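ok so heres the complex, two chains, lmk if somethin looks off
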Amino acid sequence: MSDVTTNTELVNAAARGDQGAWDLIVKRYLPLVYSVIGNFRLSRSDAQDVNQTVWLRLVEHLDDIRDPRALPGWIAVTTRNEALHLLRKRTRTVQFDPMSNPMFDDHPQSPSIDEDLLRSERRQVLREALAELPQKQRELLLLLVADPPVSYREISKRLRIPLGSIGPTRARYLERLRATSALKVFLASDADTNQFGA
Amino acid sequence: MNVVAKFDDRNDDDLMAELSAAVAEEQLVPADAVDDARGAFQLRAVDQEFALLAMLYDSLLDQEALVRGASRASVRTLTFQRGELSLEIEVTDDSIVGQVIPQQAAHVTLTTRQATLGSADTDEWGTFMMPRPAVGSVRLIWSTASEKLVTDWFSL
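and the predicted structre for the whole thing:
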C-alpha cells in the first residue's frame, strides 16, 4: 500500500480478503472509535465490547459499503450507537435518583458526530503525514510532542543536535510535514471547506 | 465548524498542538483493542458462507420508546432482517426469546467470536428460548436446508 491509500482502495482490497488492507483500516480508524467512546463514561470492559462489536459488524458489511468515503461516518455512528446502548443499559440498572434523567445528564456536552469526524480525520491525516517523514525528522517531532514533555536539553542529548538548533530544525521539519502527500491530498480535497486553514 | 476550523496549519505552534493531539489520540487506544479489531477480520472467511440478517431495530436506540419509557422496562427487543426473512428477539435479564418469521424449523445458536453460549430449537411457530448469558459481543446463527444464516453482532 502506498503512503496515501484511499478508503475505496482499502475497502475493496479488504472485501477481497486482504488482511493487510484491513489492518490499515484499523490503524486509520481505531483512534476514531476510541475518541467517540471517550465521549461516554464507559468502563474499560464496556469500551472493549463496543470496539469489538463495531469491527465485527464492519467485517460483515464490507461488501455492502457502496461509497467507501462514507466509511468514517459509518464507524462513528455505529460506535456512538453501541456506546449509547451500553450506557443506557447501565443507567437503567443503576438508578438511584428517580428525579435525575441519566440519559440526558450523562453526556450533555457530547459533541456532534460531525465534529468528532472532522477532528479525528484531521488527526488521522497528521499521523499519516508523520509516518511519511524520514525517521530522524519524525523522531524530533515526536519528542517535541511527547507526554510527559521532554526538555530541549534532553532532546539535544538524545538526538545529538545542538540545543540552539532545535527551534529552527522544528520549523524546517514542520515545512516537510506540510509537504507530505498525506497533508497535500487532504488540503486539496478539503480546499472548499478550509479545514486545515490553508 | 467553529472549534474545528480555528486550527491554522500555517502557524507552527498550532500545527504542533494539533500534532500533539493526533499522537495522543492514537496512544489512548489500548493494545488489546488493536488485536480485537484486527482479529475481527479472521471471521470473514467463515462469514462468507453465511447470509446476513442486518439489524433493523434495537429498542435501546429507539428515541420514541425512550420518551414513552418503554426501554426502562427490563425487556429489550431487536429485529434482524434479510428480504422476507426476519428474526425478532426479546432479551430480558435472564432469557432470550426469539421468533423466526416466516416460521422455520431450525437449530438456533448464540455465539461469541470464540464460543457457543447457548442453543435452542424453534417450535411450530418458529419461536425459541434460551438462557441469557452475562455480557459480550454476540450473534445468532442457524441453518435451513438451503442456507446458513447469521445476524449482525450485538452487545448484550
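quick notes: Strands of chain B lie at 50-58, 76-82, 85-91, 95-101, 107-111, 116-121, 127-131, 137-143, 148-151, 154-155. thats all i got rn
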